[in-house]
UniProtKB/TrEMBL annotation, chain A:
<protein>
    <submittedName>
        <fullName>Extracellular solute-binding protein family 1</fullName>
    </submittedName>
</protein>
<dbReference type="InterPro" id="IPR050490">
    <property type="entry name" value="Bact_solute-bd_prot1"/>
</dbReference>
<dbReference type="InterPro" id="IPR006311">
    <property type="entry name" value="TAT_signal"/>
</dbReference>
UniProtKB/TrEMBL annotation, chain B:
<feature type="transmembrane region" description="Helical">
    <location>
        <begin position="122"/>
        <end position="143"/>
    </location>
</feature>
<dbReference type="Pfam" id="PF00528">
    <property type="entry name" value="BPD_transp_1"/>
</dbReference>
<keyword id="KW-0812">Transmembrane</keyword>
<keyword id="KW-0472">Membrane</keyword>
<feature type="transmembrane region" description="Helical">
    <location>
        <begin position="171"/>
        <end position="192"/>
    </location>
</feature>
<keyword id="KW-0813">Transport</keyword>
<dbReference type="InterPro" id="IPR000515">
    <property type="entry name" value="MetI-like"/>
</dbReference>
<dbReference type="InterPro" id="IPR051393">
    <property type="entry name" value="ABC_transporter_permease"/>
</dbReference>
<feature type="transmembrane region" description="Helical">
    <location>
        <begin position="281"/>
        <end position="302"/>
    </location>
</feature>
């Protein structure tokens, strides 16, 4: 009889058996991971979103804050990279009918999702016990939460493209009013003159804008100026209609700003952000989501909406909104769905935390709270929620869309000064025709 | 009693059939691979072919309908697809030539008996170890028109550098430069091992016969590296024609589609515009091109080897 005293030796058969057992375990685990998020335990709500950086940290904070208030359920969040990867995964999960219980999309993408059956409808009446109703949203946002009169989204915020400025620089340039604001320029010449005055103070740039290689930023400022002219883009009878004059007008305006001696014509996002935060520029055109980073940098900071430079009297800026949607589930569990309604209501009520990321809460009771009024510089651009303009309501447009990326490709040469605005117009028309041709909804 | 068997079995048949009967457990060993191969290659390939014959759209209201070869007809008439294909071929040409010549030159230089060989090997091979995302980010910063090291260096000698990645006339070359820097190490390693495998006696004998260094290179080294060159060219063409990562991250296919590769167009069509049927059709056209190219290469090099 052989008596083993040491640890068992690993022979070939043992290894094989262990390998097979492990493989089976892994296989079962992998299949489990493939299971629909909606099929997890009743108490766990699957929540997909695209909040990274400061946004992600704050969403995490909110979910922790409200965890005790949401009885009988907890939220399991899955964070995915924003843009095409996120929207594709969400579409595929919805198309399979086994989507997460709750997800976030940009409102500007709603037209590409809702009519195709990828989203389930919200019932606004089911929110009433939780203190949420149509009246608790700004009118343009509530309107955009619907497609063909059906409610497909519940907006969390609005976020706009704004003008950040350094109040110390603006003051030294003699631009500040008694209330600390910069008077709204009435045309592009006056706007550039203000930037020049600030450039004299910084000894470098007056204004910076990180557009180079960034299609989204190109679009945001373009759309601000395009809509300030009262122009629209829409699909009518299968034809994409837009104003060529307003297109050229908006592009020429951007070119006039970035090619002035107060700006840098070849500025990308990193350059613009670092120039402004290091005091090298008095103004910085960007989205409100930059607020946390700007505050962290310690640069003196204030903000205002981008003024109308076309004399039309229209308040208009590019904007969008993070919104909650119900990705399509073939067999939704009504109890779980009720918890989703409650969870969304709670997140809305905790959106003061969300506001510290720079966004303006869509749930208006929050914006009326004194704490929100104390948030700087948020309160100086909060008014944009009333008149922001979403991207065209067509299936191929919206934040992170390929159409937006292609727009950047069409106009970049004009912005760089190596092509004319009419060339950009031609490129834009051709590339949009391709999208219209391929659009199915 | 005769020892001659009454029935004769072909040797090959005996070899192929009997072991399976004798050792059915062998199937168990290959089963995981067969299952994975079927699940992740065979089935998607067949399903993709089916998709390419339908108008499947992820966001579409209607269910997918069989539309025959309509997607293929549309693809052949699609100027963006041809542009993307042209970009891919151009990228392949621009990268394959330096990625064959440079690693050969580096391998020959490193093989010279100079000091610090480990440092040269490391310097040339190291970038290959980096992930494409890291390489892309490094290059985006290096090529930044105002903050980048490259334009700053050019400015020191009085040259205003272009907006490398934002100018359609330079973007492709910028991506090619990044790709060459990133991947030259792999081919370099192939060449270096081959160069070091050439017996030193051959060079010694040639030197005794009075062959100069150049003559040794032309008449000994390069001919003996022919098989390695064939391998490097074949691998490089296949790698370059499948380019996606660095372009996606450095330029997104822009500006003005000047760097958009065919796989990017498949990605955009399928995953951004959600036209899975059309994207599948383009994939199959590309698949056919790669197969033809591979067969042509195989025949070409097989003929050379035979000769």
């Amino acid at each position: 009889m052989v008596k083993r005293t040491g640890p068992p030796t690993l022979d070939r058969r043992t290894l094989l058996r262990a390998g097979l057992a492990g493989g089976a375990g892994l296989g079962i685990g992998a299949l489990g991971a493939c299971a629909a998020p909606g099929s997890t335990t009743a108490a766990e709500l699957a929540f997909w979103h695209l909040m990274g950086g400061g946004d992600g940290i704050r969403m995490d904070e909110i979910l922790h804050e409200m965890a005790g208030e949401l009885s009988g359920a907890r939220i399991k969040q899955t964070v995915l990279a924003w843009g095409t990867p996120y929207y594709t995964k969400l579409a595929m999960a919805s198309a399979g009918g086994r989507a997460p219980d709750l997800a976030v999309v940009h409102l500007s993408r709603l037209a590409g999702y809702a009519p195709g059956g990828l989203l389930d409808e919200w019932d606004i009446a089911r929110f009433e016990p939780y203190g949420v109703s149509e009246e608790t949203f700004a009118a343009p946002i509530f309107e955009r939460m619907q497609v063909d009169g059906k409610l497909f989204a519940i907006s969390l915020d609005s976020h706009a493209f704004v003008r950040f400025f350094n109040p110390d620089v603006a003051d030294a340039a003699g631009l500040l009013d008694a209330d600390g604001t910069i008077p709204a320029a009435s045309d592009v010449e006056e706007f550039v003159d203000q930037a020049r005055a600030m450039a004299d103070v910084t000894g470098d740039l007056g204004i910076c804008y990180g557009w180079l290689g960034d299609s989204a930023h190109m679009w945001r400022l373009f759309w601000t100026f395009y809509t300030q002219q009262g122009a629209t883009m829409e699909m009518a009878d299968g034809v994409f209609q837009f104003s060529e004059d307003a297109f050229v007008g908006a592009l020429d305006t951007i070119i006039a700003i970035i090619s002035s001696d107060a700006a840098n014509r070849r500025s990308d996002g990193g350059f613009a952000f670092s120039t402004f935060t290091s005091g090298g520029a008095g103004e910085f055109l960007s989205g409100v989501w930059d607020v946390p980073g700007l505050l962290d940098s310690g640069v003196p900071l204030d903000a205002s909406p981008i003024p109308n430079l076309f004399g039309t009297g229209l308040d208009a800026v590019w904007g969008d909104s993070h919104a909650f949607v119900l990705p399509h589930q073939d067999r939704p569990d009504e109890d779980r769905r009720e918890k989703v309604y409650e969870a969304v209501s709670l997140i809305l009520k905790h959106s003061l935390t969300w506001a510290t990321a720079g966004h303006t809460p869509a749930y208006t009771p929050i914006t009326l709270e004194p704490e929100f009024g104390g948030l700087m510089p948020n309160t100086h651009y909060a008014e944009t929620a009333e008149y922001l303009h979403f991207d065209p309501a067509v299936s191929f447009a919206g934040s992170g869309s390929n159409w937006q990326a292609q727009f950047g490709q069409a106009v970049q040469a004009a912005l760089l000064g190596t092509a004319s605005t009419s060339d950009a117009l031609t490129s834009f028309t051709e590339m949009t025709d391709d999208f219209v041709r391929q659009a199915v909804i | 009693m005769s020892s001659v068997p009454t029935t004769v079995t072909a040797p090959g048949a005996a070899r192929t059939r009997r072991p399976l009967r004798r050792h059915p457990l062998g199937l168990l060993y290959v089963a995981p691979f067969v299952v994975l191969f079927a699940m992740f290659l065979v089935w998607p390939t067949i399903y993709g072919l089916w998709l390419s014959l339908t108008d499947r759209n992820l966001a579409g209201v209607d269910p997918a309908a069989f539309i025959g070869l309509a997607n293929y007809a549309e693809a052949f008439a699609d100027p963006v697809m041809w542009r993307s294909l042209g970009n891919t071929v151009w990228f392949t040409v621009l990268t394959t030539v330096p990625l064959v010549v440079l690693p050969l030159a580096f391998a020959l230089l490193v093989n010279l008996k100079v000091r610090g060989q480990w440092l040269w090997r490391l310097a040339i091979f190291m970038p290959f170890l980096l992930a494409s995302t890291v390489v892309s980010q490094i290059c985006v910063w290096l090529l930044n028109p105002d903050l980048g090291l490259i334009n700053a260096t050019l400015a020191r000698i009085g040259i205003t550098g272009p907006a490398w990645l934002q100018d359609p006339s330079t973007a492709m070359y910028a991506v090619v430069m990044a790709t060459v820097w990133w991947t030259v190490g792999f081919n370099f390693l192939l060449y270096l091992t081959s160069v070091q495998a050439i017996p030193a006696q051959i060079f010694e004998a040639a030197a005794v016969d009075g062959a100069s260094g150049w003559r040794q290179l032309v008449s000994i080294t390069l001919p003996l590296l022919r098989r390695t060159t064939a391998l490097v060219v074949a691998l490089q063409v296949l790698a370059s024609i499948k380019v996606f990562d660095q372009i996606y991250q450095m330029t997104g296919g822009g500006p003005e589609n000047s760097t958009r590769a065919i796989l990017m167009y498949v990605y955009d069509t399928g995953f951004s515009s959600y036209r899975l049927g059309y994207a599948s059709a383009i994939s199959y056209i590309f698949f056919a091109i790669v197969v033809v190219l591979s067969l042509a290469q195989f025949r070409l090099f097989a003929r050379r080897s035979a000769s």
